[in-house]
Each structure stands twice: as C-alpha cells, then as structure tokens.
Amino acid sequence: MIVLRDVTYGFGGRGADRGRVRPVLEHVDARFERGGFYAVMGANGCGKTTLLRLVAGMLAPQTGSVTVEGRDVRHFAARELAQRMAFVRQQPQTDFEFSAFETVLMGRNPYQRRLQNESEEDWHIVEECMRQTNTWHLRFAMPGEMSGGELQRVMLARALAQRTPVMLLDEPISNLDIAHQFEILELLRRVNHEEGKTILLVVHDLNMALRYCDKLLLLHRGGVLFQGAIAEGLTPENIRTVFGVRAERIDSDGQPLLRLAPTTGG
Amino acid sequence: MERGRFDRRGWMAVAVLALVLVGAMVVCSMVGVVRFGWGELWQSSIFLNLRAPRVVLAVLVGMGLSVCGAVYQSVFRNALTDPYVLGVSSGASLGAAVAIVLGLEAFRVGVGGCALLTGLLTVAAIYRIASTGNRMHTTTLLLTGVCITFLMSAVISFLMVLRQDKMDSIIFWTMGSFASASWTDVAIVGPVVVAGVLLVLLYCRDLNLLLTGSETAQSLGVEVEKVKRVLLVATTLMVAFCVAACGVIGFVGLVVPHCVRLVVGSDNRRVVPCSIFAGGLFLLVCDTLARTVLMPAELPVGSLTSLAGAPLFIYLLYRNKRRF
Fold first, then answer.
1. Is the pLDDT of residue B324 over 70?
2. Are A203 and A209 a contacting pair, CB within 8 Å?
C-alpha cells in the first residue's frame, strides 16, 4: 500500500527566480491499495508526473511523506525499491546504444549481485516479457531503429522484467496506435488480475481509463479533486471542471462510454 | 543463443589483447638505441633499470587512463569525455607543479597527493557546473575542460617565472614523458592503477545503467549518487598518480574505449576489461614509437597520442551523435 500524506512539492526557481517556488502539488493526500488498477488523471501540468516521481522516491516532498508498506519511500535502498516498483518514464531515452534485448535485461539488475552474470531464469523472464509486449522480434534492434511506440513497449517490457508488485507508468500508451493501446492495456489488466500487481497509470484517454482501470485519482490545480471508483469519478461535472469539455455518459452494450465535445459550439 | 556468442566474443577479445600486450612488452623492451641479445638481457642495467620500468609504467598508465576514459564517458553520458578533454589531467598536473615548486619532489607520494587534491577539485567543479539539468551538456563539459586547461597553463607560466630553476621539471609535467621512469614510479603507480581498475570492474553493470540516464538507473536499483562518487574519486586517484608519474598524456582515454567499442559493442562489461589491455598496448606502442622513430632523439609521447586522438575527437564532434 502506498500512502501520500499532506504532500507538497514545488519546483524552485533558478537564477533570477531564485526563492520563488512554483508549487505543483499542494497538501495532497492519496492512498493506493495493493492490487488496485489506478488511473491518475488531470489536465496537462497538474502534477501527474510529479506525483509518480514522488511515489517512486525520485523526488523528496517539501512537506508531508510518501510511505510504501509503511516505510518512508526515501528510506529504501535503490535496490530494494527497484524490487518493489518499476517506473516507465514519459519520454523513453534513445541516446544510448543497447539493443532492445539488452535494455530489457537491465530490468533484472535489482536481483543481480556485483560481477554476477544473468542467470538462466533472467533470460527466460526477459524473453517472456518481450513476448508479452510483442517486442521479441525487435530484440536485436537499437533505440535509433525503433519507432516511438516500439520503444515504449520495450520500456514496458523492462518494467515487467523487474517483476515488481507495483508498476508506475507515465503515459505508456500515448505513443501507441489504437491496436497497441488495447494490447498493452489488456496486458496490464491481465497482470493486475492474475499477478495482483498494483498499477498507477497516467493516461489521457478518458474512455480507455474507464474501460480498463477500476480506481481513479483525479488531480486538479495541484490538489486531489476525486479519489475512488473510476465510474463514480469520471462524471460530466468533474470532466468539465478539470478539462473544460462537455461530457455525456452513454451506455454502449453495458459498457459506460463518454461522448465528449468542446464547451463552445457542437 | 545471443549470450553464448557475446560472452565468447568478449572473453576472446580480452584474452587476445592480454596475449598481444605481453608480446608487445617483450618486443618493445628489446628495441631502442641499445640492442641486446637474449643472453645479456638480464645483466644489462639499461634493460633492468631504464627500459623495463619504462615499459611497465607506460602499460600501467595506459591501462589507468583508458579505464578512466571509459568510466567518464558513462558517468557523464558523453562520448567526448576523457581525463584530458575534461581538464582533470591538467588540474592534476597543476597540483604536481605546485608540489615541485614547494620542493616536495623528493616525496613522490607528496606530488601524487597534491595532484590528487587539484584533480579532485577539478572533477568536483566539472560535476557541479555540468550537472544542471538531467543530462550533461557537451558544450558545458568541453568548455569547462578548456577553461581549466587555460587556468592551469596560466598558473604554470606564473610558477615557471617564479622558479626558473625548476622550469625543466615543470615543463615535463605539461608535455608528458616516460623518459625518467623508474621502478619507484612503478611501485607507486602500480598499486593505485591495479586497485582502481579492480574497483571499476565491480561497477561495470552500474556503468551500463548510468548510460541510460540517472533517473532510469535509480529506478533500476543503482544508488546513482553513491556510485558516481565512488567512481569519480577512484578514477581521479588513478589520473592523479599517472599524471604525477609521467605528466599529462592526452586522448588515451578517448581513443582506446572508442576503438574497443567498435569491436565488442557498448556493454561496459566487455568495454572495460578490453580497455585495460588495449590501453596498456596503445600507450606502450606510442611510447616505443616516441623513443625510436627519431633515434636517438625522443618525441614527447603526448604528441603521438594527440596525433591519434585529436582527429578522432574532431570526427566525433563532426558526427555529433552521442554514440556508445
């Protein structure tokens, strides 16, 4: 279980702006239960990525605390944390020269000792994770030779290879075509159901979130507007408040669906 | 499948390089102004006291500088860095020059210690200046190195005017040479380089992860700040003692890891072990050429390494791709 208590974080000004802090998150309280499939949503710049990075222990909150399994996340050794949480960043980096296979193999690092080589098991896990994310055929490809979506799937494979109970995913499907979006979300739902992985997913597509996630953390202007079941959170009122668009809930074969339109015209 | 092939290739390369290095050490200690036959080798004081320590020192310094280059390239995530380009060698040579002016040259460890101090200050400065933001900007890194080199040559000119009697030994530090190599140098540089290289070997996988970015490395279980600190201190120690023994020799740390990568790929678990032996070999060959090409006159070994390194550096700049 991950708990954020009264968390504030702001980016300090540099140079002329020194001392002026631009708050991103202010007094945020949130909790993520084990085994939940959470959508973290909100408008651009509302602090979704910052929240994920705070949970991952990459940033230290200016007030409040982030605890994982009751322990402050900043007190974990990097290795311990890497065995508990996998993180997929928004923009995959491409400026190194490791093949997709070598990249995914790095996901096994938290389980390897110094000087120890990859075990037979590591190789099987990597192959399995690459097949799951449909990247096995890309195993010899270098970052420069892959499309944004392919690279994103490789990063997801690396996160899966970490075999962590928690996955933090920052817009993993934003670069993908619709077929691969479904494929990845089906996969995430499967690992969520079958392996009980907790997933925190930053996602922009409201209908995809509604279809796949069960919980919602809706951020608005640096605070939490809603936390709870996603079907109760993605209401036309909340969507209008956060995104400023009109939404209408319709029923499509028993699946709730949101019809969206701009506030003006339409 | 891939593993068997890669591992075999990596170990083959290391074994071949080690064998070639041993062979080269034998051959290089045979050639020179004075020639020996096999029998007289062990009675010749030229061989025992001049040539053998010189060959061993060149190999040790080559190993140290190459491994440092490979480490810097991964830690700073920039293919254009090595101890010379970053100004760490110059910074260390400043300490060495100051130590000489202060009259510490009788204590080799004192010179090394002063070189270490200014070398560490240089690394700390580079790290602070260049680490604003997520990635190390090439421009910032290179300009920092250039500035430190300028500063160093300014202070060195000042010292030379101040102590004209010591001019020769100060110039020696800025040019780089193995001409005065002795077993004492080997005894001081040897343990530092061996210990430093062994330590770096423990961190090869961390170096790979650092190449993918600090944040990613952290989330994959690397104590990024700690690892960087350990590696930068260890490498600066190696650079400082190499510089204190033989002065500033440029581009070794740039040339060797790049050539190695062309053969074994960018996995540091292969790059670092291969760079150890390839680096020893490279500097040994350069030094042997330096003392034999214009026999009996001697070229500065740094001019030969720069002859190889500077064009490569320009080519890398031209290609402008951070390729590892």
1. no
2. yes
